[in-house]
Structures are given as structure tokens and as C-alpha cells.
Amino acid sequence: MVLKTLNGKDFKSLVVSGAKCLRDNMDEVNNLNVFPVPDGDTGTNMCHTIEGGIAAVMGIDSELLSDICKPLSSGMLLGARGNSGVILSQIFRGICKGLQSKKQVNAVDLVKAYELGVKQAYGAVVTPVEGTILTVFREATEYAASKVDFTSSINDFFHYHLEEAVRSLNNTINLLPVLKEAGVIDSGGAGYVYIVKGFIKYLEGEEVDFSFLDVASKSGSSLSQSADVDFNAFGPDDELKFGYCTEFILRLQNSKVDIEKFDIQDVIDILNGDDIKGDSIVALSDDSVVKVHVHTKDPGKVLDHMRKFGEFLTIKIENMALQHNEQIGDSELEEVRSREHYKYALVAVASGEGIKQQFKEFGVNVIIDGGQSMNPSTEDFIKAFKSLDAENIIVFPNNKNIIMAAKQAATLYKGSNVVVINSTSIPQCYSALTMLDYSSDDLTIIVGNFKQAIDNVSSGEITTSIRRTTVNKVIINKGDYIGILDGKLLVASRNRLYAFRRLLSKVKGIKQKEVLIVICGKNVTEKEKEKLQEQISFYFPYLEMGIIDGGQDIYDYLFSVE
Predict the structure, then answer these.
(1) How many angstroms separate the CA atoms of 65 and 313, rounded?
(2) 223 touches 170 (CB < 8 A)
(3) Which of 122, 146, 346, 424 is an S-S bond match for 364, by CB 3.0 to 4.6 Å?
């Protein structure tokens, strides 16, 4: 079929077809990892992100772009995982901004929307790097814009867009030396190309197959399922302690408010006011649509106040006693939900029961299950924030691929002041938590101490290579134990303990260091721990060594030295 204009129904079908093509090729995208470690997750993160948008529009059957774009954008924003997922959500956020006021668009209008996508995506990244998904999307958009005019079809736009996206993707290997040395193209760019290929399949008449969404739901995407109500969670004699989790989407009405001058802060002020006394507030506005989450003991008052601005599109009210001891969402948050008020609270991402237990003992209030290959979404972070009654929340993402989602959540959440620490590893977090001290009662000092601890620690990781490659001039064979120090792969060996010792020896100023903390993965035996202690005592006698049974997957050893 040839589309001269694009409406909401076709746009929804394009996105679904693109998501299916991406999921069909997810493993291939995951394997495009510079480091040959078994934690490639770009494809998985991008799948979860776009499927979060699909979940938000599945029940909408409309030909109006304005009806599809807003929930699609919001769903992707909340479902975003990993850096690639966050960037993808921002790409679509910009595109949807350009489309959302339209009933349908032509190819020229589509160009303008995609140009907004470029602007939005680049603006969301503090230091944009060329040779990534950003480059692929930008160059594909610029090329299509140079080819399209008012006689062009929607098909023309996407064919031009894909043509250049493929060229740009193949060139990423020449733009980033790390890609060239590893012999791979950019994984995020590859994921985006598969999405556009899915668009083309729909335009060429391939029927949209929704069956993959069942697989997506089972894999933990945002295509979620509603839980059964536990009627025993709140009995006839129980007291309402936690209030109601109240969520709604409101359509602003011109008869009630000046939409152009509407300020979401007015809604937040009401929810924070003495009449409502709400907490865990998340309030977002997008033109005439307002989305709100609030915890309150009187949801009726909330609804009465909000009708001053418009009329409800959806409403959900749930007694929070039903949520009190449950795991939250797909990330299975381990939380302390006493509703105790905190001036300062800590949220950390971690995997491995030993690590989680250690973090709890250090004073972490909420642990989000995740890390390598399990990047939590923006919504996972927001749910963690909601579970706390805290004035200030300090977040440790503990992975460079999780920081963007954490910061996106911090921007969206209005219930607390949220500060994200740029921690990129579990050892960094461990060292920072040893400096936990609230006695100053000064957030700047508390955060400064955390950052100083991270700056002063060297962080190492030992894992297993899944393929033959070369990184940083280190020749690596499949099955080698590889050592990564502060994000740089430096060691490869057939012997795990030798790889550990060699990596440790590469720590700058190692002879001036004093303390070594080793976090052992679930595959490390007691006998091997004893051998490691013996070797450290022999080769590094000046280091005081501590061992923790972390129980983590993928990484046999994590260590910090300071």
C-alpha cells in the first residue's frame, strides 16, 4: 500500500510492526557488544522501551494521531531502560510532539516531526557521542528531509530514511575507535534500523502480527498484567494506615481553564496542600492531557479538586494495604514500606543476595533488583521513589547503562528531591556507603562525601569472554577470563585467579593502597576463595583484604581498592 498521509491507526501499526522486527532480532542486537561479556542488553532494553509505548496504546482504536501520540510517548518514557532505551524514548517523544496536534500528516509534516525527534534526543544527552543511535537517527532524518517534498508519500519518507540509516549504521564502526577495534557496529543504531525495517514491512503490506506481544509480556516488558486482588489484605476491622494509591488521566477543558496558560505546578500545589496532604506525587502534563499519581487518604477530594481543570479519561484508586508487602513491578523491589518519614533515604540498584543484604545493613532503604543484563526502567525507579516517604532520595544506579533512566525518573518524580549519584559499579557504591553520615544534616555535604568516596576508589570486574575479539589492544579468545578496571578492559587470561592478580596490579599507585574488598560471584568456590586470599597475601602484602559473598551472576569477582 502507498500512504499519502499518515493517521493514528497507521502510526500505531507502524510502531507495532517496528517493535516486532526489533524483538525478532533482539539477540543479534544484544550480541553487538564492544566488550565480549555475556551482558549485552541493548536489544532487550530497546524492546522493553518501545513495548512500554505499545502497552499504553493497545486499547486505543483511533485514526487521530493526537489520540495515539501522547500515550505512546508517555509509555515509552516510563518504560525506558538503559541508555539506548532512554534515547529511543526521547526520539519518539520529539516525533510525537511534532505529530500530536494533528489528525493526520503528509511526508513534509513527518519530516518536521522527525527533526523535532533529533532535537529532543540530542538535548537529552549531556555529551552526545557520534557513531551511536543518535548519529544513525539524525543522518537518516537529514537525508529523508533532503529528498522529500509535497509530492512524496509516507512510503517515500521511510524508504529514504531506512536507506540512509543503514549507510549510517555501517559507518559507525569508522566513527568510534572502540567499535572499529572490536569489529562491531553500534548496537543502539542497529536496534533502531530494525525498528524502521519493521515500519517498511507494514508499508509493504505485511499484516501486523500482535502475537509477539504475548512473548513480550512473559519476558517482563511493560505489557503488563493486572494482579488478582488479595481480599485478606484489608479486613472489616482494619484501619486505613496507608491511604489510597490514586492515579488518573485528565483532559483539560477550555470551558474550565486557559489551556495555553495552564501550569502543572497548580495541580502539584493542590495535592501538597492541607486539604489533600498527598505524598509520592507524580504529575505530568502534555498539552491538554494531565497524568497524576498521588497517595492520599481522601481520593474523593482529589477528584473534586481536579475537576476544576477538566474531565477524567481514566481513574484508578487502590487501597495501599493491598500493596504493602508485595513486590513492586517486574524489578521485584525489596523495600521497607513502613511509611516512616525520612529526611534522607537511599535507593540502590543491585543483584546478588549477598550484595543486597550488605547494602541493607549499610542503610539502603530500597533496593531495585537489576544491573548487568537487567536494567531497571524509568518507571521502576519511580515506583521505588513512591514507596518512600522521604524529603530527599539519593540514588545509586551502579551501572553506566542505568544512570540515564535514573535521572529521567528523578526529573519526572515530584514527591521528593531526588539526587542521582553517577555510580557505575557495585564496588563504587560499597565504598560510598561506608562513608554514610547524616550528622551534618546537609544534603550537599552528604552527597559530596559519597562522590569523594567514589572518586577515590578503583573498581575492578572479572568475567568470561563470549567471543574472540580485540579491545584496547588486548587479544581475547572465547572463554578467557577478562579483567575490567574502571570501565576499561585490560586483561585476558585462561586462569581466573591470574586474571584477578594481573588486573589488581594495574591499579594506579597500587603500592600506596591499603584496603581491598572482594565481592565473590555465585560460581566462586570456598577453595578458590582460600587460594585468592593466599595469593593476595603473597603478592600484595600491604593490602588489608575483606571478602563478601555477593552471589551475583556474570561477574565472578568484583573488587574495590583504596
Answers:
(1) 17
(2) no
(3) 346
Q: What is the DSSP letter of 522?
A: T
**What letters, b where the CB count within 10 A reaches 16 and e where it falls short, cover 264-301?**
eeebbebbbeeebebbbbbbbbbbbbbbbbbbbeebeb
Set out the domains of the chain in order of their start, with CATH numbers. Answer: 6-218 (1.25.40.340), 243-322 (3.30.70.260), 334-455 (3.40.50.510), 458-561 (3.30.1180)
pLDDT score recorded for residue 328: 35
Average pLDDT taken over every residue of the chain: 88
Enumerate residue ranges in the chain where pLDDT < 50.
Answer: 224-231, 323-338
Predicted pLDDT at 426 = 94
pLDDT at residue number 547 = 94
The per-type count for the chain, helices as H runs and strands as E runs, is: 20, 19
Question: In the chain, what is the greatest distance between 2 CA atoms, to the nearest angstrom?
Answer: 79
Burial of 161 (0-12, 13-18, 19+ CB in 10 A): buried
Give pTM, 2 decimals: 0.76
Q: Which long-range contacts (CB under 8 A, 24 or more apart) does 123-129 make?
A: 123/90, 124/86, 124/87, 124/90, 124/404, 125/87, 125/404, 129/176
Specify burial of residue 560 (Cβ count, 10 A radius: 0-12, 13-18, 19+).
buried
Minimal CA–CA distance to 562: which of 448, 446, 432, 465? 432
In tens, the pLDDT along 456-468 reads 999 999 999 988 8
Region of residue 346 (phi > 0: left; psi between -120 and 50: alpha; otherwise: beta): beta
pLDDT tens per residue, range 402-458? 999 999 999 989 889 999 999 999 999 999 999 899 999 999 999 999 999 999 999
| CB-based contacts of 203-210 (< 8 A; 24+ apart in sequence) | 203/1, 203/2, 203/3, 203/14, 203/154, 203/155, 203/158, 205/1, 206/17, 208/13, 208/16, 208/17, 208/20, 209/20, 210/16
Q: What 3-state DSSP class applies to 285?
A: strand
Q: Which pLDDT belongs to residue 276? A: 87
d(CA 45, CA 443): 32
**pLDDT at residue 303 in the model:** 92
Q: 388 near 342, Cβ under 8 Å?
A: yes
Pairing of strands 279-286, 289-296: antiparallel
Cα 562 from Cα 553, distance rounded (Å): 25
State the CB neighbour count (10 A cutoff) for residue 34: 18
CA atoms lying within 13 Å on the CB side of residue 305: 20
d(CA 552, CA 78): 27
For residue 72, the one-letter residue type is: L
Q: Which helix (H) or strand (E) holds 468?
A: none
